[in-house]
Amino acid sequence: MIKLNSKFVLTKQINDAKIKTLYQTKVNAILKTIKTKKALGLNFTGWIDYPNKVTKTQLQKIVSATNKIKNKKIKYLVVIGIGGSYLGLKACLDMTNAYKNSNLSVIFIHNIHQNYLLEMLRKVKNDKYGIVVISKSGRTLEPALAFDMFYQNLVQKFGKKTADKLIIAVTSQHAGDLRETAIKNKWQTFFIPDNIGGRYSALTPVGLITMAFCGLDLNKLFSGAKDATKKLKNASLLQNDAYRYACYRHYFFKTKKMDIENIVVYDPYLQSITKTMQQLFAESEGKQGQGLYPASCLFTTDLHSLGQYLQQGKKCFFETSLFVKKTHADCQLKIKDPVIKYLNKFKLSKVNEIAFLSTIKAHTYDGKINNLIIEIDKQDAYHFGYLYTWLMYTAMMSAYLLKVNPFDQPGVEAYKKRMNDVLKK
Questions:
Q1: CB 3.0 to 4.6 Å from 363: which of 20, 21, 50, 367, for a disulfide?
Q2: Domain 2-39+223-409's class?
Q3: Is-same-fold flag (2-39+223-409; 50-216)?
Q4: Domain extents for the chain?
């Protein structure tokens, strides 16, 4: 399960009971506007009911599609998408270590800088590889450009007939350039629901296709998502941790005038979760001069670079740490170095747990930093499904508390328009 621990918030300022007093009426009012269909952006809330609508037959169809390509003895899977088309998906694969279930090497193409793109193309160009291309419209420049280069290489190497059987397109069901191209070339195609936006889409075919390639148990994934959906129907802020987290975030931003949320993990395999949280929160809240800036850190690594500032610098931020109780691997230490031999009474996980608690206490009691902890029981498919759903509810409520639309991102279009205008001229 997922739990919000507010023990290390500076309790003289705020605590769970005070959050309920300050925010319960506001949350109830927001939920009423959703129920009466008066809230902003409700045409993009399809993710709320989606876990309960997906059938085992639909999931099996996805698995079968991936098996068709895996059976062609591909060495790599090239996943082409940007933003919400890959962030949540990668977070799932990293958190669950799903790669271990597959003989495939997964390569994410989310950037078109020549150093990166050409190196990835060079890496796969002489081998057979599958492509998952993800774009709702098919007109986003970065994935369109990258896909064309990888597709051309497949055609030149193996011929168009073989290349077309190595592609899965994930796109809009009713319109768009990628949809038309996919139909024309008879690629295997799956559709993104029209009422689900990119950053809320990891549990749709946007993420499910690659998860299936890596052997992730999709039924367990949706079991977690369904349990979270059921749990989060409870409006009480003492029971609904996702909404309570949203209220803490709003309190620190509006009342304490903090501009930054520093999202912290201690496991490099959870860094993609922080990237997903950054997109969910930044794109949902960052409008009309509103919203926290979501920064991220990997501890203990970044304690040796940013630690000094965090401990004694300007207190314009609060911290949210993700901590997993049961990890993939562990070992009893058997150290020979006499200087640190005293550590042999510990497992490696215990050393990291002590590092985590010591940092939290140093930041809270010495550094006067407010700290929230998101406690995660395990790193498996069930808990990713639960966590991702939990975070989507947090992002939605956070934005509504700021009175902005959680589901659009008009600011993203500014660079796209200027870039396209210049390139076309």
A1: 367
A2: alpha beta
A3: yes
A4: 2-39+223-409, 50-216
Residue that the structure tokens 């497949």 belong to: 154
Q: How many helices (H) and strands (E) does the chain have?
A: 16, 10
- Report the pLDDT averaged over residues 172-197: 92
Question: 50-216 has which CATH code?
Answer: 3.40.50.10490
Distance separating alpha carbons of residues 279 and 273, to the nearest angstrom:
10
Pairing of strands 317-326, 371-378: parallel
One-letter amino acid identity for 423? L
Residues known to be catalytic? 283, 304, 416
CA distance 394 to 199: 13
Give the C-alpha separation, 175 to 166, whole Å: 23
Query: Which pTM value belongs to this model?
Result: 0.94
User: Would you mind telling me the total number of residues written for the chain in this entry?
Assistant: 425
> Running DSSP on this structure, what letter comes out for residue 313?
S
Asked if the model's pLDDT at residue 423 lies above 80, the reply is: no
What is the C-alpha separation between 165 and 162, in angstroms, rounded?
Answer: 5
Contact at 8 Å (CB) between 321 and 371?
yes
193 contacts 353 by C-beta, under 8 angstroms: no
Please say whether the beta carbons of 317 and 369 come within 8 A.
Answer: yes
Return the bridge partners of 188, or none: 168
